[in-house]
Amino acid sequence: MGQCGVISSKTVLVFLNLFFWAAAGILCYIGAYVFVTYDDYDHFFEDIYTFIPAMVIIAVGTLLFVIGFIGCCATIRESRCGLVTFSAVLLLVFATEVVVVVLGYIYRAKVEAVVNHSIQKVYNEYKGTNTDAPSRAIDYVQRQLHCCGIHNYSDWMNTYWFIESKNNSVPVSCCKPTISNCTGTLMRPEDLYPEGCEVLVVKKLKDIMLYVILAALTFAAIQMLGLLCACVVLCRRGHDPAYELLVSTGIDA
């Protein structure tokens, strides 16, 4: 029964190590996704809120790959030193993911306040040219999120671009895609997106941060299972004479 328990724990541990390799790729993908997605909204949100979580996620993904390699080697070779190292690194990654979850909750709570503070400034910097970064950011957000203005299209009337252009129209990125030959004129408000961008930008950023938090919690739970299995194998290896005999016989063979 003792040998069966150890072998079961070892089997679970091997499968978990293989899963860690897959998880490493998934976490690196999530980190890259956060970088790329937030890059489209970086004028509405400070870089620190995107750079730190994304870098931590990618670092955790890299560590998981190392953990999977160490864990597989240690489990197959019955290495006590390897299993201890595996457990220590796994504990470090678990602590890092706890940090990711905490930072995620902190930053997620700040999203609305930060966006509220920055969005008016970004809209006032709009120049309507592709060479201008704030203009590209606003046009991208309005097309992707199907929104116009901060609260609605009438917010454009208070921007420097609208006042200077004197054409009584909003950017064509406010136009609904189903409307042909839309020029953004305020004479035809039914051609424009009715919803403002502020609420949708906040929702988008909060959703992305929530995905990061859920991913970190999920992998942290699985890592605790791996840590538990490693501890079981270590304890049985140190206290079960039958298991020591089984290991010795296997090595001698």
From TrEMBL:
Residue ranges crossing the lipid bilayer per the database entry: 12-36, 48-71, 83-107, 208-235
Source domain of life: Eukaryota
A Pfam family it matches: Tetraspanin
InterPro entries: Tetraspanin/Peripherin, Tetraspanin_animals, Tetraspanin_CS, Tetraspanin_EC2_sf
Keywords: Glycoprotein, Membrane, Transmembrane, Transmembrane helix
Protein name according to UniProt: Tetraspanin
Signal peptide: none
Presence of the UniProt keyword Glycoprotein in the record: yes
Gene Ontology CC annotations of this record: plasma membrane
Subunit record text: Interacts with claudin-11/CLDN11 and integrins.
Family: Belongs to the tetraspanin (TM4SF) family.
Keyword Glycoprotein: yes
Localization of this protein: Membrane
Physiological role: Regulates the proliferation and migration of oligodendrocytes, a process essential for normal myelination and repair.
Main location: membrane
SUPFAM superfamilies: Tetraspanin
Membrane topology value: Multi-pass membrane protein
